[in-house]
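Need Helix-turn-helix protein's 3D structure for a figure. Predict it.
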Amino acid sequence: MSIFSENIRFLRDQKKISQAKISADLTITRERYAKYEDGRSEPPIEILLRISKYHKVSIDLLVSIDIRKFPLDDIVKLPGNKIILPVVVDSNGDNFIEIVPQKASMGYLNGYSDPEYMESLQKMQLPFLKNGKFRAFLADGDSMPPFADQSIIIGEYVERPEDLKAKKEYIFVTTEGITYKTFVKRNSRTITVAADNMFYEPYDIFLKDVVEIWRYVRGILPQDYKPHYLPDEESLKNLVDDAKRSISNLEKRLLSMKTK
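Structure prediction for Helix-turn-helix protein:
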């Protein structure tokens, strides 16, 4: 059975009502409703909307999240029934910061809303990061420039794309993976982001592909990290101009040799 069919069966059981009762309330036949619960049929959008309003649970949650894993009251109280963000706490009720390895990014994309998966991740606590929901992402190789291999990048959860601030750094979890970028601007269907490296042009990410957004708050570098100091923009421009002049002079010399 699908997540949707499991969810509507669970919600009906929680209300302790029969299939005949709920199908009458939804103005459909019991046989038709039974097919939805058994996973033998998928409802059209108008019926899906009725079921969503009946249970006061968003369509997004009904079709994508196993809501049996969460207290029903917590789901209903969420504004707009937004995707539930699992929070792992210690015995004192203080939040843990889960560490997501870059190598496990695809596993995270599949399990970010699953409390059992979040429990399986390594965790840490920082005394100066208590108020809010934080997550840590472990860089692997040059996967999250400018951070070095094995750096830990910590972000605070951003609930809505509307809360993004221009020229601020974020960790974007998308359907393509996890990336650290500077937010440039929001467009109608995309957001424009930029890398710290000036050699890369800014690019757009479709909003529909954004799974999570975390505002960068702290970076923890490996003990043996040695920073690579890059020249400033003006010095770099001079180096490029010098290289161009050298190439031009070399081309002239080669051309003069051919004409002799």
